[in-house]
UniProtKB/TrEMBL annotation:
Matches recorded under InterPro entries: Acyl-CoA_Oxase/DH_mid-dom, Acyl-CoA_Oxase/DH_mid-dom_sf, AcylCo_DH-like_C, AcylCo_DH/oxidase_C, AcylCoA_DH/ox_N, AcylCoA_DH/ox_N_sf, AcylCoA_DH/oxidase_NM_dom_sf, Mito_Isobutyryl-CoADH
Record Gene3D superfamilies: Acyl-CoA dehydrogenase/oxidase, N-terminal domain, Butyryl-CoA Dehydrogenase, subunit A, domain 2, Butyryl-CoA Dehydrogenase, subunit A, domain 3
Sequence ranges assigned to domain Acyl-CoA dehydrogenase/oxidase C-terminal in this UniProt record: 253-371
Residues of the Acyl-CoA oxidase/dehydrogenase middle domain: 132-222
Protein's UniProt name: Alkylation response protein AidB-like acyl-CoA dehydrogenase
Species of origin: Bradyrhizobium sacchari
GO molecular function ontology, one term from the record: oxidoreductase activity, acting on the CH-CH group of donors
PANTHER family (alphabetical): ISOBUTYRYL-COA DEHYDROGENASE, ISOBUTYRYL-COA DEHYDROGENASE, MITOCHONDRIAL
Top-level taxon in the UniProt lineage: Bacteria
Any Pfam family matching the protein: Acyl-CoA_dh_M
Keywords linked to the UniProt accession: FAD, Flavoprotein, Oxidoreductase
Family named by the database record: Belongs to the acyl-CoA dehydrogenase family.
Amino acid sequence: MVTSVAKGRTAHSEPDYIARAEALATSFAARAAEHDRTGSFPFENFRELSEAGLLSLTVPAAHGGGGAGARYAARVIGILGKADPSTALVLSMHYINHLVMARSPTWPARLSRKLARESVEGLALVNALRVEPELGSPARGGLPATIARRTETGWRLTGHKIYSTGSPILKWYLVWARTDEAEPRVGQFLVPAGLPGTRIVETWDHHGLRASGSHDVVFDDVVIPLDAEVDVRKPADWRAPDLTQATVHTVFVAAIYDGVARAARDWLIAFLKQRVPASLGAPLATLARAQEVLGAIEARLAVNARLIETFARDFDDGIQLSAGESNAIKLTVTNNAVAVVEDALSLTGNHGLSRTNPLERHYRDVLCGRVHTPQDDSTRIGLGRAALGL
């Protein structure tokens, strides 16, 4: 039971947050097609999430938040991923960072309390900005080109970040950068959005998740306080993965794309029941082939549900989890989700690929599951090397 009360709200149990997410999902789903078509950012979704207290779901109860762990957060993300995966992606990144703040000994307590309080009190989202044009994904190795130069009065930050999910609405950026010291250190700097020298370049025009606002953010000699340094270390000290971040990232990403697959499944069921070809004289749902394909879809979704639920619960229960295992969960669930939508398309033909039907959008969205870190090839190589003892 959540006992903390914020802004005059009465205390609520974690299942109540699930009900709030389900209530919002209807309006999110109704708006999703238009946001996808225009590439516009769903600002209204985040206002409603804030008003429903869902932005602070993973903020510790001691700071007035929901105090939820990975299990309930993944359920909320899955519900919203089914309605609008772009919104769910931005929200999941926000949730991840608050879970990491609450559990990481390297996060300055003053900063984590500040961000927690702001998330409870209003519309204050945070995300990590890590990917760069030259570097690509930091998970592949290499030093960032973004540089933080220390002066007597503060850090001066210069760099270019791409795929900055949620950039139109973020209040805080966690910027991955290196110092200009003789022996550079690498890590995160907390940067308020909108400082002089900061520009959002609207480059996001993607195949899927078109409403995620994953634009470029450019920093040109942006001044931030010296205590904006969150966790900056020697590059070698970053070789071991942050298991909290790695675990919740993979399970939340999995939940998003499982949600997309479930939206496709629901549309397919309605289509099979309603479509009556003249040559058949009965709904497509009466065909054994349609029933078999739908049965295969149900099997994949059942596996996904079990993997997401049990893995998130193990994390909340403090069971030691490996990065390899969490990567395998992400690979399995996202590929199951892609296969679900592809199976749905195999039964619908041109109807499924028409932009007048949502299945076409679900297909574009679900394919994005494969590009999130860790990518499938890295996961398979890592698991193979571990099996070989290399």
